[in-house]
Write a structure and sequence with these properties.
Elements: H1 13-17, E1 27-32, E2 38-44, E3 51-55, H2 66-69, H3 72-77, E4 79-83, H4 103-117, E5 126-131, H5 133-145, E6 150-156, H6 167-176, H7 181-193, H8 202-213, H9 217-233, H10 237-241, E7 247-252, H11 260-270, E8 274-279, H12 286-289, H13 291-309
Parallel strand pairs: 3-4, 3-5, 5-6, 6-7, 7-8
Antiparallel strand pairs: 1-2, 2-4
Helix pairs in contact: 4-5, 6-7, 7-8
Length: about 300
């Protein structure tokens, strides 16, 4: 397994890669949501090649996918797209909870992103890759818009039922939603501490903390309430069960946010199209913890899908 060293400064590949020469290859664009918000996105690679769209998780931004966007192999084989969810990163972040407390917003935003990323080509399908809560956004899209544009789904450290969150994480998450600044910041720091299988290098922790601070508190409160309520009313199990394209579910054996044994078993039992990989020595942030293995496996999955379609 290739694991990012936490102590050797010379080998901090993803942090070094933030300044790498390929950054000038990344192009940015915006899509306009149904309610007028500007959603920021980036792409790298040839748009004529198979498209993979990366969806970040709670308190994240598009930049969590640096180990993938700076992969020469992935950039050469695929058209990579990532976004900042409404209220996160460089996307518009109005201080109005009504802009976040409706799950349809997230489905509509993703639909607009897919249309822009595929240049309006109705025949072109994409692979969605969600991390953590990003999987729920993908499932919201599938519930509303169906699978017509979906070639495959990579389900990274996700859950399809709320009960799969570990107690330590369940205890911390409410503090990240606090109106009190100090409480929210302390809760966010504790949340980030749980992302990796082991202690995060202070520089990596600062990187993720910066992204979390770029997430609007109003967005955090509104979107979390909406997604939890939707899970209670309908849940994501039925949506996941009805997916008819290949699914690759990837987990870290040492995840400290979700219960990997229970969640991975439920995923496999819910949809027979799903296969699972569980990386040892990897946590919730497995696409950093073992980034080379992760990049290799998602590349193989995507290549097999698009090869069979052609």
């Amino acid at each position: 397994m290739s694991k990012i060293p936490l102590k050797n400064e010379e080998q901090q590949l993803p942090l070094v890669s933030l300044l790498s020469s390929n950054q000038n290859e990344i192009k940015n664009f915006t899509v306009t949501s149904n309610d007028g918000l500007k959603i920021y996105a980036e792409e790298v690679g040839d748009p004529e090649k198979p498209t993979i769209i990366f969806l970040h998780g709670y308190l994240g931004t598009r930049l969590v996918w640096e180990p993938q966007f700076t992969s020469k192999s992935l950039r050469e084989k695929f058209h990579l797209v990532r976004w900042d969810e409404r209220g996160s990163g460089a996307s518009e972040s109005p201080n109005d909870i009504t802009k976040y407390n409706n799950v349809d917003f997230y489905a509509d935003d993703l639909n607009a992103l897919i249309e822009k990323a595929t240049r309006g080509d109705q025949k072109k399908k994409v692979i969605l890759i969600g991390w953590s809560r990003g999987n729920n956004v993908a499932l919201l899209y599938l519930k509303k818009y169906g699978q017509e544009k979906l070639a495959g789904f990579i389900f990274v450290a996700g859950l399809i039922e709320l009960g799969e969150i570990l107690p330590a994480a369940a205890e911390i998450i409410p503090s990240t939603l606090s109106d009190d600044f100090v409480t929210a910041v302390n809760g966010t720091r504790q949340f980030i501490d749980l992302l990796s299988a082991g202690p995060l290098d202070p520089r990596i922790k600062a990187f993720f903390l910066g992204g979390a601070i770029a997430s609007s508190p109003t967005n955090n409160q509104g979107s979390t309430a909406a997604i939890i309520e939707d899970a209670k009313n309908d849940g994501y199990v039925n949506v996941f069960r009805n997916i008819t394209v290949p699914i690759l579910a990837i987990f870290g054996a040492d995840d400290r946010l979700i219960n990997t044994p229970i969640t991975s078993a439920k995923v496999l039992a819910t949809n027979s199209r799903a296969t699972a990989i569980i990386y040892p020595n990897a946590g919730h942030l497995l696409f950093w913890d073992v980034y080379e293995d992760f990049n290799r496996d998602i590349s193989k999955f995507a290549e097999n899908i698009f090869r069979s379609e052609n």
